[in-house]
Amino acid sequence: MADTYVGAIDQGTTGTRFMVFDHSGQVVANAYEKHEQIYPEPGWVEHDPTEIWENTESVVTDGLADAGLEASQLAAIGITNQRETTVVWDADSGRPVHNALVWQDRRTTDRVEELQDEDKVEWIREKTGLEADAYFSATKTEWILDNAEPLKLQSSRGDDLRDRAEAGELLMGTIDSWLIYNLTGNHITDVSNASRTMLYDIRELEWDDELLDEFGVPESMVPEVRPSSDESYYGYTDPDGFLGAEVPVAGALGDQQAAMFGQTCFDEGDAKNTYGTGSFYLMNTGTDAVESDHGLLTTIGFQLSGEPVQYALEGSIFVTGAAIEWLEDVDLINNAAQTAELARSVDSTDGVYMVPAFTGLGAPHWDGRARGTIVGMTRGTRKEHVVRATLESIAYQTRDVAEAMEADSGVETTTLRVDGGAVKNDFLCQLQSDIIQTEIARPEVDETTALGSAYAAGLAVGYWDTVDELRENWQVDREFTPEREAEEVDAMYDRWGDAIERSLDWATEE
Q1: Residue 7, burial from CB neighbour count under 10 angstroms (0-12, 13-18, 19+)
Q2: Which residue positions form the known binding site for ATP?
Q3: Is the model's pLDDT at 155 over the cut of 60?
């Protein structure tokens, strides 16, 4: 085992990473490549699936080469992915019929409002655990079939896409399915990703015929659903392909569930928050699919081979790290690391609140027409105040979710495990601890998303025998405890609610 490892393909919103882990969960290889963000119209976000696959080949090859490893040393490959992002491709050629519609894409908001007008929101929630929202894959797939002209450069056929879908000629899937298909030739997803499509019944654990019919998605289009850690394997890489080796592909998890798995949140009540482009707060609720009365999602956490599904409550925050990227885009900062320095240079935001609702608001507000708002500015407002307000918005949005989580679950979070790029920022971690008045634990290996998918694949092939081995690997880098008084923080948080109100239902002309 000393010279074997587990690889993880982490296909995220802004780029693709390949990491290799040893038996102690330490990183031995790491390669990353960005892909283009495509914005055809305001509120529309697309990715090129072919570019994503080519980048995946590139980072896997580069990561192994940089570490001096052979593909044959990989005991397994796991996959984790940006979740609801949706691809439709030709079953025969394997070529996409349109760009992927990204989870952030809001073009189907009108369709969601139709569902609301038809009183179908509760019906959808009962089956899927999800809010009816443009975020999920169902309306994205429907839009592609109804509106996408087959790309002339990619398809010589002019047939209507709906006719082709009905004839079994088209496949759909989230990015995990797209990668598994390209790696193994098999059309497979795992339960965690299936639960994010708004087409899957999370209690019956099957594609729902009524939902497939509602959104006009033929059952022949959807992938086979398998456990997140699958001892039967999803398939093998082609020994004649780019890797030159037959490696089992044996685990897949949506990125937030993968982070929960990598943070070893295996027990009921364990919680984590991942700070990436958006932030995603998940609490393991065990084998009970807890219904939310406070705007959270009920979702599948993970499933191990031969074991029951573990569920989770999730608070999805659409924009956190992307708000820091926006500060860079408008030249308020030169790089993300500068935010802490600027925020520390002032004692407060001087009454400024920033609501980063660039793509609407997720949990617990669920307003697809909310838009980014800065309130409370005066002539004395400087960029330092806006930068600090942006960091505070990340912490406030997390508190929105944390309070909803405690109300739904009846479990008080004593320690929140955090991960993702933004948690390298000590100022943000301390701010987060202060604002939710909870201990924050940051692990040594903060790439827990990739680690979680590696763990899932490694368990499937026997590289690790039990989840207890994985718990032993988890090590704390630093803990943060509240330093500010609850009364002071509560007053700040009350004004945050006022700022949220001003951002709601803004994009009424789109």
Answers
A1: buried
A2: 13-14, 277, 321, 421
A3: no
